[in-house]
Amino acid sequence: MINVALLQTNIKFCDAEYNHSHVRELIDEAMAADKRPDMIVLPEDWSSGFSDEMFHHMENFIEPVDGPSVTVLKECAKKHKVWIVGGSIGTQFEDGMRNTTFLINREGEIVGDYSKMHLYSDMDEDVPYLHGTEMNVYETELGKLGFMICYDIRFCELSRTYALRGADAIVVTSNFPNPRVSHWRTLLMARAIENQMFVIACNRVGPSPMGTYCGHSIIIDPWGNVIAEGGDEEEIVTGTVDFNEIQNIRSMIHMFRDRRPESYPNDMLLPNK
């Protein structure tokens, strides 16, 4: 049984100092609960928020891999002996900038990362950022974890790849806006049901220059049942997952045995027309 805490934060736009301090407070609060979490998840862009205008001036917001935002999370993970999925941070790599989440273990060490694969071109997210290309499943003491960031949840190919690679859960970090909360909930439930796996998704709340964000951070089991869900205000959403349920469900509906990949067309690999 794994206890999870989702930090559904109200991010203060372009104020990293405030956001760092506030996240430290929220992590302290989460760890003081009777059911101490084994894993804490933050939303996308938790240290700065974002707007489409930022994407044309990312040199003012980008951080190195060992930058201040990652350092805050590493310190908190080590202090509380808790796993942290570090939302996402605009990160400078040798070959360019990416929107990246970091997986940090109980000792405060980075043991995995995922860079957003599907960048939202309608808001110019692909102007500063390189598309992520890696779809790693990380085997941890908690279970096998794959990652998505916000817009990724609209692309079933990514979640199916994680399922075929043995993931127990997809952990989603997001800045999903109003008024699309119905899309958020429906897409996440579909990703859980169609892959017979857990979905653990943390979204932000509050205003930004782009509008407002819908919250509803959520934990969904492989049947599509909601274990825990937040509202539209700042809060810590908690729930418990049992990855042993996955095999029980897959033994009742043999979806992966009944797949017919040899009959599927390759159209999805072709460029858009």
UniProtKB/TrEMBL annotation:
Q: Which GO terms describe its molecular function?
A: hydrolase activity
One Pfam family for this entry, by name? CN_hydrolase
Which protein are we looking at? Carbon-nitrogen family hydrolase
Classification from the root reads: Bacteria, Bacillati, Bacillota, Clostridia, Lutisporales
- InterPro entries assigned: C-N_Hydrolase (IPR003010), C-N_Hydrolase_sf (IPR036526)
Which residue ranges does the record assign to the CN hydrolase domain?
Answer: 2-243
Keywords of the record, alphabetical order, are:
Hydrolase
Q: Look up and give the organism this protein is from.
A: Lutispora saccharofermentans
SUPFAM superfamilies xrefs: Carbon-nitrogen hydrolase
The record's similarity note reads: Belongs to the carbon-nitrogen hydrolase superfamily. NIT1/NIT2 family.
UniProt superkingdom? Bacteria
